[in-house]
Amino acid sequence: MAFLDVFNDVKTISATVKRASGVYSTTAGKVTSAQSTIGTLLCIFYLGGQSEFSIADKIRENVDATMIVSSGSNIRERDTVTINSKDYSVIFVDDVALQSEATVVLLSKIS
Prior knowledge:
Elements: E1 13-25, E2 30-47, H1 57-60, E3 65-70, E4 80-83, E5 86-95, E6 102-109
């Protein structure tokens, strides 16, 4: 049984993960960036106020939301996550208890 199976009665929602990449243009003399979609996955999502108990004081004010996904989802810090048509920046990724079962992802809303 996978860790997230414990949450079968909790509503999951879809999240689209995007990653920025930069390419240096010798002609323009600058880096151009683009975002590519890494994938869409199901997650347990809740707003920042509901996750205060698990967030260190030094980053608490930056966290607007939290999502929990199955490990192996390939989410990295600085990725962009779109949930319910709102964009969030990934500010912290944690493999819970280093068990490779669930990953907690802390998000900051992009204005």
